[in-house]
Write a structure and sequence with these properties.
73% helix; 163 residues; mainly alpha; disordered N terminus; 0% strand
Amino acid sequence: MSEPARGGARSTMALLNTKQLLYVWLMDGVGTMFLDGGINAGIAYAMYHSLDYVDLWKLPNTLAGDVLVTALVEGFLTFVIAGTLVMKDIRTGKVDAPQRFAALLDRVSVFNKYFLCEDLLKSETTKGEQWRKIGRACRSGLVYALLTVVAFVPLAVGGLAVV
């Protein structure tokens, strides 16, 4: 049996090798941050550049509505697209799954197939199977996005109300 992790984030980082850390921080961290930030900046500019004042609640362009839609859409797309691509990278060997994560995948196959979109992009998967798996990934992504909205939108709108 493995020794329990001590020290929070420090012990979690010790479980990852250099290649995994670079993958998580650069590919899934910094790269995603710039991509999502650029998309959000473009949408915000298109919506608000002609307005002198933007209200938190007043329709048609509300900051609260923008936060809600952004959290829902980006949570959904990030889960479906990034989750699928990360699983593909793990399956094709571009990056190794952390040992504890790999052991979890082997033990919890229902979670693996439903929530992590396992083998969605395998070449031997038929078109019908791919569409079923895409539908399953979309359902899982919607659940993830809704949980994200419930957890973080009230905090973000509260922060905007203070400003």
